[in-house]
Amino acid sequence: MPYRILMIAPTSFFSDYGGHIRILEEARVLRQASQTVRIVTYYKGRDVDGLDIVRTPPTPWHADYEVGSSRHKFAFDALLLWTALGTALRFRPDVIHAHMHEGALIGSVLSRLTGAPMVFDFQGSMTSEMIDHRFLRSSGRAYRLARHLEDRINRMPRVILASSLNAADVLTREFGVHPARVMALPDCVNVDVFRLRASTDETDVAALKAQWGIPPERTIVAYLGLFAPYQGTDLLLEAARIIRRARNDVHWLMMGFPGVNTYRMRAIERGLADHITFTGRVSYEDAPRFLRVGDIAVAPKISATEGCGKLLNYMACGLPTVAFDTPVSREYLGEHGIYAATGDASALAAAILQLVVAPEHGRALGEWLRARAIENFSWQDSGMRLLSIYDAVTAPYTQTHTTARSSALTRRAH
Q1: Paired sense of beta strands 159-162 and 250-257, if any
Q2: Confidence category of residue 403, pLDDT binned at 50, 70, 90
Q3: CB atoms closer than 10 angstroms to residue 14
């Protein structure tokens, strides 16, 4: 049946990284299945054609804000709650689809007021992310309070959608959520957009190399994503320094943000000025084109609980991929990834060099990875699973509560 789905996105949607991609592709695949989706999000971010997006007003004292955890988010989330409440009263959702823990907390309020069941899209531990972003210390009292809040939020929804099998394991093992309430709905990739480099792409690839001053004969190691310590950016630069001392034919294509100038200076300090290119933010729409410049992809993320959607983009583009040996990396890449001991820059450099010296083996790995992406990580399949989950959570409500919910909403709206 068609649903009216209210998505709560406590972030500056849309930005070109991480969980934003999941929100975008879920909304797109639901719309393709003739569902009505409305997204409530923060003031900043860019609109996407075809999506119904409602934004909060800006805070008068801080209209701009940084990526990641911030004390300003308390005010943003208060505005998000207010905006989402007004939207829910007008929209009258059948399902509330909440992203991230703040979204689930807001969604639980809306669910109680409207009677619409809530599903929680879990993309990683809230407190672990705060530690990754250096917003909390694991030994502090604030951490214990935040961990308690996270535990309470995890028990609010009827169903939690885990963005990876590892995330599902975290929920059941670390937080004690009953397995029957956890559904693994891994991140996916659009394999028609993210595709292999074809002979017809060579002119465009050459043009991009010329635009960014990349020597055409070098092996290109590509990274796409956020720049941050928990993303392994500093370790990647150290691995690049190690390889630069051994070889002169490897070039690093660093696509992402924030802190571009800071990381550019760190690269210069490591003697990489002529062997590394920082593009800054690359839009999601341009990402496939830029990835086709690469010969090897790298994902040095060290976070223990978050997903790593960039791996799927690499896979769909047929790029042999090096990653730290984490559960999420293994889940996506399987036996065809090249793994390095987590947090070890020397091991990361050695793993990358395996592919530099054996390009034919790398191309074979890339082909296997693309086949794996097509078989196991399709958004179309994920969308059908998502609809079946909506069917399950709305079944008790559809006949017995629809009329009462509509009447209650009408009274509150007036």
Answers
A1: unpaired
A2: very low
A3: 22
